[in-house]
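We were asked to recover a plausible sequence for a given structure. The inputs and outputs are reproduced exactly as logged, with field labels preserved.

PROBLEM: sequence recovery
POSITIONS: 503
GIVEN STRUCTURE:
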């Protein structure tokens, strides 16, 4: 084909494409114009609406108004409005369109558009508008509507689902969030509860406790707390608050103060919530920035942390599981013969087909689960901020009954592989295993249930993790995974302390 022919075909294709585009654009503009013409209030935009007056589904006359860019209930109370609900009403009013227009309508009362009509008034661009909604139409999911009250005005039918935004109770139009903040804006948290309290501060984007002790904070605990406060919702409101002492707000059971970062020359933002007594089995009373009180669900109060240890750093190890290339399990062997080293070392290496261990074979799937479990390992609580050598020895932490190290990939330029985790496990105390990090003096308590996936002793490793048969049935292997060793075989005593207290 010649260049000339190719050029002609290309020109034809471009012309056709342009024609189709122009046709579609014209069709779209025509549809938009048609929809615009059907709107009851013309080209009005939701953002132009300045105030709305309506009667709620529970029979309360309400007025909403924009104040400094935010919706607020101004009658019958002064209270922040639920922005989503208020915006939905504004949008429904501005975009409400007719399905049909009645020709030669009868008196408005026939359509329920007289005194019995639901009336909404609103102001936009300095003008006041009125919408009346009447009875359902005999056919179709529509309702009669009219703008204004003049006899002879056009009577429309509008889709009932478009007016559903107007069916709100007063409480549904109120902001149910006692605290309204962005998590990233918080720089300090002060919390008080009945018998204690803490102060944590964000320093260089890291949370740290400053009272009652100076220590690293548990980042996950702080972020969970902030998330719980962001999503906290009231079940209801108390608009005529009793005396603070009557509802426990003179000495609240829980008080949290969030302080934001200060802009230059300005006071830092501050959000405060105090939670007092129960007002019934399901609800507590709470006070925030508004004059009215909030009814807070009891479960929301119960989940708020009320122990200093809940906020303290309890991280045993943290890494990306896929970064692990090798691990070492170093066990003290209580059954070692006199004169022997008493140390058993198991090494695991990630290969193309999965994890392989020597000299004792660990089941590959259990090795993968162990590496993944150790990648995000947190303690249940703190046993001590530090202990002397004799105490550590008595608890199986010096030397450690079990030391676990996980390594990443060695640098291409040579040198040692990075240590991703270095955790030591000691004796079993009740339902807790004592543990510590190699780089910290703090002694932690771990939930002993983690032993289902992490070998915390040589006995546990051999009874639970060693692969004895390549084709072993998974159900048979899982029989020994319960913490108390229920089942048959050597699993039964895997965690029973011996005379020396070894798990």
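RECOVERED SEQUENCE:
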């Amino acid at each position: 084909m010649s260049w000339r022919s190719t050029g002609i075909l290309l020109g034809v294709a471009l012309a056709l494409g342009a024609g189709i585009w122009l046709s579609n654009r014209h069709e779209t503009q025509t549809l938009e114009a048609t929809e615009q013409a059907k709107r009851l209030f013309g080209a009005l935009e939701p953002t132009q609406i300045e105030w709305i007056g309506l009667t709620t589904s529970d029979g309360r006359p309400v007025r909403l108004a924009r104040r400094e860019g935010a919706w607020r209930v101004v009658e019958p109370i002064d209270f922040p409005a639920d922005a989503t609900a208020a915006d939905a009403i504004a949008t429904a009013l501005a975009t409400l369109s007719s399905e049909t227009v009645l020709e030669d309508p009868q008196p408005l009362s026939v359509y329920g558009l007289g005194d019995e009509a639901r009336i909404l008034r609103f102001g936009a661009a300095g003008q006041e508008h009125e919408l009346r909604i009447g009875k359902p139409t005999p056919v179709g999911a529509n309702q009669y509507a009219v703008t204004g009250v003049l006899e002879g005005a056009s009577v429309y039918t509008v889709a009932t689902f478009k007016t559903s935004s107007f069916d709100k109770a007063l409480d549904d139009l109120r902001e149910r969030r006692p605290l309204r903040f962005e998590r990233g804006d918080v720089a300090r948290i002060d919390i008080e509860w009945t018998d204690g309290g803490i102060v944590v501060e964000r320093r260089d984007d890291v949370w740290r406790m400053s009272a009652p002790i100076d220590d690293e904070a548990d980042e996950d605990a702080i972020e969970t707390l902030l998330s719980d406060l962001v999503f906290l919702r009231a079940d209801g409101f108390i608009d005529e608050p009793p005396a603070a002492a009557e509802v426990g707000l003179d000495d609240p059971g829980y008080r949290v103060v969030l302080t934001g970062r200060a802009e230059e020359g300005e006071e830092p933002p501050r959000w405060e919530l105090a939670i007092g007594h129960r007002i019934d089995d399901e609800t507590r009373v709470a006070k925030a920035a508004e004059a009215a009180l909030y009814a807070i669900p009891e479960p929301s109060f119960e989940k708020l942390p009320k122990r200093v240890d809940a906020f303290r750093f309890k991280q045993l190890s943290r890494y990306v599981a896929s970064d692990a290339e090798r691990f070492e399990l170093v066990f003290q062997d209580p059954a070692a013969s006199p004169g022997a080293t008493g140390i058993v070392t198991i090494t695991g290496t990630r290969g193309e087909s999965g994890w392989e261990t020597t000299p004792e074979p660990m089941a590959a799937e259990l090795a993968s689960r162990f590496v993944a479990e150790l990648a995000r390992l947190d303690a249940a609580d703190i046993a001590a901020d530090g202990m002397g050598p004799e105490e550590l020895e008595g608890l199986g932490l010096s030397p450690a009954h079990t030391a676990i190290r996980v390594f990443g990939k060695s640098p291409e330029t040579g040198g040692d592989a990075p240590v991703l985790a270095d955790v030591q496990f000691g004796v079993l105390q009740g339902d807790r295993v004592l543990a510590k990090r190699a780089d910290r003096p703090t002694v932690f308590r771990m939930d002993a249930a983690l032993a289902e996936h992490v070998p915390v002793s040589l006995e546990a490793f051999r009874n639970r993790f060693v692969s004895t048969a390549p084709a072993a049935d998974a159900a048979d292997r899982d029989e020994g995974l319960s913490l108390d060793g229920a089942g048959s075989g050597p699993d039964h005593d895997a965690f029973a302390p011996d005379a020396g207290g070894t798990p």
